[in-house]
Amino acid sequence: MRKLIIALAIAAAATMQVNATQLPEDVKNCITEDFPKANFRFDGVITLPDGTIYLPLIPSKFDKNAECKIETTFPANKTLAQKPDVVIFSNDYILMKVIVDAKGNKSLAQLPDVPVELKTALLPQDMLVPSNLNVPQNLKNIIGNLEIPTSADSIVTVPIVQPKTISENNINSLASIPDLKNKILYVSTSFSKNIQIVNPEKKNPEYALEQANIPIMIKGYDDMFLLVSSYGKKSVDVISLADDKVIKQIDIKSQPDEIIMDYKNKIAYISVPQDSSIYVLSLDTMTLKRQLKLNGMCEKIILSEDGSKIFYNDKQTNTIWALELDNDYLLKEIGKFPNVSKIAYVNGKVYITSRTKSRLVIVDYAGGGMLSENSITEKPVDMLVNGDDLFILGAAENTIEVVDTKIDKLTDTIVLPTDGFSTKINKIDGTDLALVTDAKAGKYMVLNLQTKEIVAVNQIATPVSSIVVANKIKKIEK
What we know:
mainly beta; seven-stranded antiparallel β-sheet; five-stranded antiparallel β-sheet; about 5% helix; disordered N terminus
């Protein structure tokens, strides 16, 4: 009879797991009182600033109106700040610490007398459990349908074979750039399926994240995750940078293509040209919230800086559209333009480059009329808005032209120190720097957006297609 009661309680807890990985706000508040910088991962894992990991257990029932306070700890009479092995809150939510011994073995607390709250609780059923976690026999019920991964089947890192032609691996050019201190680079390239991890002070990648398909786009979020779309794959991978693992696959009807990020509102927009759609992804929960139907096959998607509009080009008709996110998702036609390479929006104007014609068209958004058409650097491949400045990257001559969008006049021309094929300008969030990548030469350049000068040229062993800059973080498995 006792086993039946426990089984029913576990089943009840399982029925609520779909939405349960988001901890109640009062539980989060209890944790952040002692650890303001605690990280709450969308699948439930809680990481404290020093790398200590807690796994939440979801009760079969809990009182939403109950005051959240610590009811019991193991060892007894500990505060949360003392990081006990087990914390049971008054609403029956439980935290269990991942205990790591001197050899790196991971386990949960051995409890001779298991409290009933633990017997009737479950780990979130979509959680990525730390690999090789040892769960005591009398706590096996908390696992539910979860599988504990082993190191062999969960780690997606692969070593890099360093080229013998490079004898000196260190780079000294970044010593004068504090904004790149303690940063790490995630690099994709057309020469490899894998995403390479590069220390900015080194030429050679340190290791790589193994991928089954060639990435189309990689985007970083909160220094904790990479979102990856890939050729031939009908899903977006979510890679946890603390684990170096794929912790979730977001399935989509057709192959996803480009990803743009609204960091302020914690939203990602994912284009799916074959489906004539843009999907809205919550970055808090890593779940799809909405499908936005479009006209045509969308490409070159961009988000206005205030997050109110998405612009895209229909590759079938060469028509540019605006999707007004703050106006019931109204679609507004901007016009038809040949060989569009990039779209930008600033100061109420739409800027459009043509790669083959080397032209910049400026359109008044409100009125819809073309304001001007100008010759620009050859083979424009990318644009970056920074304040009132528009940076236009030209691949043919490896130059960046800067346009003041208040007066729409060319103010600066930056000659890049490369004879390769420049591809993208990637702004480093929170800084006045951008990285200019090169898909042919083994280098990337550091551009100061305020002084409009190249302040460093960094050698890298592999040509770069796209790049994400993130803070170094403590690895869970290390």
